[in-house]
Each structure stands twice: as structure tokens, then as C-alpha cells.
């Protein structure tokens, strides 16, 4: 654990694509049928794959972008539109959906085990290296919540 505590942001950010890949593997077999039953009867495997293949590409590309363009603005964009929506707000989605529908939401296990640790470690290191300020992190967090809500309402519930 000592190595993780002292790891540079450009290395620790690789927890994101690793955790995201595990999350997708947990969801893949059953999320489409769950979404059809609880969210939207027209949700398809194609819908799932479009969102999650794009997510994997973004998750894998993000550490490369961060490594070659290490700046507060790039870090802010990463937290706002990739990391926080996919990790933190996905925890709330799966835990909330499981509670509301009283049925396991595929993805819940990785969301409540891997994602909290990943979010904590990556965020802490970005703050330590001053790649994001506390104020920018709070603004990013708010915007990420709005972005995630819009994403889920459009791509899963298809409300617009």
C-alpha cells in the first residue's frame, strides 16, 4: 500500500481503465435485460455496447492524455466528463437502482467495492499534485453529476 500512496497521478490514474473494464465485465451479461425490465423496454445490447465501448476507449485514452498533457485544465476535463461520472456517480446509480427496484443492478458489486477505492486514490493524488484545486474539484463534481444524470436519462431510460 505504501507504493500506491506515493504513486504519481500519471500512474495511479490507470486504476480507472482497469476498474472500468472489470465493471463492464460484471455488467455485460445481464445489464441489458435488467434495463429492459426496470428502465426502458426498448434498451438493446447495441445501446449498451455503444455506450460502454466508447467508455472503454475514453478510459484507456485518458491516462495517455493526462501523461502527455499534465495540466489543471486537462485534469478538470478528465474529472468532469470521464472519471467522476463513470466512477463516483455510477456507484450511486447502481446502489440507488438496486434499492429502488429491490433487484440487483448488474454492476453493483464492482461499483461498491472497486469504485470507491479508485475514486479516493485517484482524486487524492490529483489534489496532492495540485493538478486540480479543491475549488475546481467541487465545481467538477457538480458538473459531473449533471453530466451523469443526463447521460443515464438519455442512454438508459431514454427520456429524451
Features:
160 residues, 79% helix, mainly alpha
Written description of the protein model:
- This protein has one domain.
- The chain is built from nine helices and no strands.
- The protein has helices at 2-6, 9-12, 15-27, 31-38, 45-68, 72-86, 88-101, 108-128, 134-155.
- Helix 6 (72-86) runs parallel beside helix 7 and helix 7 runs antiparallel to helix 8.
- The longest helix is centred in the middle third of the chain and has 24 residues, at 45-68.
- The relative contact order is 0.16.
- Mean pLDDT is 93; it is low at 1-5.
Query: Topology as H/E string?
Result: HHHHHHHHH
**Total domains:** 1
How many angstroms separate the termini?
A: 44 Å
Number of helices: 9
Q: How many beta-strand segments?
A: 0
Largest sheet descriptor:
none
State the oligomer. Answer: single chain
Helix content: over 70%
| Uncertain residue segments | 1-5
| Amount of beta strand | under 5%
Mean pLDDT: 93
Based on CA atoms alone, the radius of gyration comes out at: 16 Å
Q: Judging from the principal axes of the Cα atoms, what is the shape?
A: elongated
Structural class: mainly alpha
